[in-house]
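Anyone able to model this chain together with iron/sulfur cluster?
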Amino acid sequence: MKTVSSLLDEHWYERYKKISKLNIRSSIYDVTDRCNLRCKGCFFFSSDEHKAASEEKDITKWDAFVENEMARGVNLAILIGGEPTLCLDRIEAFYKRLPTFCATNGLIKVPRERFPDMMVGISLWGDAEDEVFLRGKDTFTISSANYAGDPYTYYLYTISPKQIGKIERNIKKVADVGLKVHMQLLSNDEGFDGFSWQPEQLVAIRAEMDDMLDKYPKTVISSKYYHEIITTGQMLGRPFGWNECPSVTDTLDKREPRPKRLTNFIRWASDLKTMHRCCTSETRDCSTCKDGAAHMSWVMVNKRDHIRTTKDLQNWIEVYEMFAKLYQFIPW
Ligand code: SF4
Ligand code: SF4
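re: yes, here you go
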């Protein structure tokens, strides 16, 4: 029988042992319904999730809610929005209790004296021209001034088909301000012309992402297997989609048979009562979903299937390490 130890040499086994201890249990929280931008294709607004519930304003309710979440076993809070930095006291309700990651557009600087080691992921949608088109603003200029050199911050670069052939200049800009970058692909939720992926574009962008990892290994947090999974939508011959997605809210998950999934995962709306279907949007078509975290989690929850060949298991380890680095469970 194939076992982890029979497939790995000492070096890889050590790496495996470090991550196998982590037992990460995340959930996702909409901190607010508001944002200081309105990006074209934002899954939150395009699916009207900002109207699903009105936000809880009483901070004592947030404190009690976070305590309950911890009792449910959550050990990683992923804060999204809208724009979480509009509500620092709500962020603090999480941060003072458990490892917290804050997704932001970076226009507002999180005060580091209040949140010294909170992980911050800044969204980036392309170069200045593309950002102005998609987001109405060149956010990089502002966010990079706010966060340059910050050891607990990285860019979450959402790559669209318009970025093919151009991603290096963005990776280089991030490297030049002393930050890290993680890549994912745009899901064109609002159907903008030219922003839906064609098969040959996915082949091209995979090669480009691989090349960036080779050229900027200290800046890019990624793995080639992740690039393969996210561009092909296939893992070990199985297609990604609703039947396989691991990031579906636990209590709403009525799938039969139940796929491998994140333990106790819930995405909560900002009223602290309503739950959303999954880590992205209710109205998104799962067959075109390119969400990076959902694909990463898909690999992570399917460890057993990767205990097949040495290469498969190493691929699995690299994806797990990448996720753990992005949330600082292990160092960059
Ligand atoms: S910054 Fe984020 S939450 Fe705000 S509109 Fe853009 S994608 Fe949506
Ligand atoms: S939209 Fe994406 S993240 Fe949501 S259930 Fe479908 S595949 Fe999963």
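Residues 35, 37-39, 42, 44-45, 81-83, 105, 123, 135 surround iron/sulfur cluster (ligand 1) (CB under 6 Å).
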